[in-house]
Amino acid sequence: MKNHVDHSSECAYIIEEIFTPPPDNKFEYIVQSRYFERLHWNLPDKSSFILDKYPDIDGASCCFVRVSPDQELSSCFILRGGHQLISCASGGWILKAIEATVASYWIPQVPVLRTLDSYGRVLTEETAPITGFKNTPNQLEIEIKISANKQLDMALWRFQPSQSNILEDLENPLVLENQSIFFWTSETDYQAPADLFLYLVHGYVYTNRFIFPRKWKICSELDAYGLYVTFNGLESATEKALYNLYKRQVLFSVIARQSEDGGWHHGEWTKFMESHYRFHNGAMLMLEAALKERQDEVVTRALERAAKFISRKTDNTDIGIWFLHDSLEDSEEMMQEMCRVNGSNWIQKPVLGKAKTNKLILNTHLDTLISLEYYRDVTGDEQYTDIVNSALDATRSVLALRPAELLYRNIYRAINLTLLPKREAEQLPLVVRAIKRLTWKYLTPNLYRIKNIFPRLVMPYGFIERHLGMGHYDIDYHPINVLDLTRLSRCFPNEDLDRIISNAVKVVTDTNIMEYWAENKPRNKSLVEMVDALYHLCTLKKDFSYRQVLAKGILILEEWKIGLPPSLIGGDPEANKLSQMIPCPSPTDSRLRIVNLRHANMIEIIVINSASSGLDLEWEENKIDISSWCNENSQVIKNDRKNLHVPARSWICGKKNVN
Question: Got the DSSP string for 519-573?
Fold first, then answer.
């Protein structure tokens, strides 16, 4: 790297100036609300700028820069005035002004070179080479080389002196802020405030992974909702202004991407730029949570359009309305394209009176039900009540199906052999291994044929399958079904789901399937979903055994270095009403994991130690005055509140009644 910048072969950008939009007729508002504004403009050199501002918060703004040259060139970014370059404990680098009256900046991630298709999907990505750097008392210069036909992406925050506290917060994160959080679509971990910009790319929330089957990065409102829930919990825990800014930025980034038809479209599988309704529902849940916190006309309009869109994505079956999984189910042509891409097939037989292309996928049906019911609760709009009631009828009917009990019981005895962790599978007798091999090679690939004759989702031993309209078997969806049924029981407390849910948890406690999910990377998402389901169950039920399974799941996640669900900090708006939320305490020791189980009239905290030695519990923030603690066996711990000890690979639970 050279230590000077040659301006003869570059395009130069003055950093102060990119935070100043051009005259009115040269930029457009993408989103304009009382609480958030997004402006966009282009320059003749094919550079594009998106500026996020907060009308009610003076002095904090974020700019996304994209430079798209036709040929290779060097681009220089110049910051005038004296600034110190500081490596930030929250990730990235702070350009801290030497003079107290001058703005400071934060670069959360290294600049990146990308190629994108016409739909905005990311096809390739690499770190941009920094070829020149110079910092003098009066000016800082950074030179970046941009390859031909690639786009340089970079994000910067500017903080005026009035917001210097945000910089101080970035330099001094709590232990809780650096706890790994796992996001569903990306199947990757968020570990620090700077990591938002691994997902937030030039104003849209993307997956932080090139996902199967096309190896593209696509936009994901489900990851956006995970980010929102995370920041909701961290805002409560830290009271840091940054997380309020983050929540708004993610929220309005999703609104900015909403299509004219009211939906969100992703193009994960095909050339059709299909819509995945679980992603769409993630956006709705976030909009609903935002409106519970603060009324906003822009958010309300976006939610109304989203509800109208999803309410039409249905199939009128013999058992009632069924919510579809994605827009591929709109036509046979799109279904055929999906099957061509992933090598699967779908069941065209009219099982339960379904349409040919309806995959009868349970989890998205439940998720849409929940999203529309929360829509009614938040807005008071009753227009979708009949649709919701009919979908509830369909849910009851499909969950009640119990044909061929003896046949399925024997089938699942064999299937259970395929769900063992490696250490158990290797110890099976030779004859049992042969049965196991025959099962995964011949039985499970053809299980859909039996389900065509005897349709059933709730299986013996408690397993819940994903669908009735696809030609493959996938028990890895068991956890998301448990999670969604638990969420449904919270949303519709009169529904009788306790036995199904308790049996579904029992099959997990009676086996080592959580270890099986953890050790198989494509499946570790299932373990995180199971932990999330158990978290929701613990906020609804007092059963101590649910806490034991929850803690066991977290210990396995820690062992395999997999992040925790966003909800555990206490910011999930479904599990925690805004009026009941309490700040999650942050431990001084980063090896301790905290579960904030605030529910009903109870403050409950679980502290988990995954280390190989015992650890003393001390709080660096939000110390909670809890005198009643028990160990993992529900035995009361005698303590003086100052000397709590968490044994190695174990946990303790504290409770306190509140009004």
Answer: HSGGGHHHHHHHHHHHHHHHHH---HHHHHHHHHHHHHHHHTT-PBPGGGGTT-T
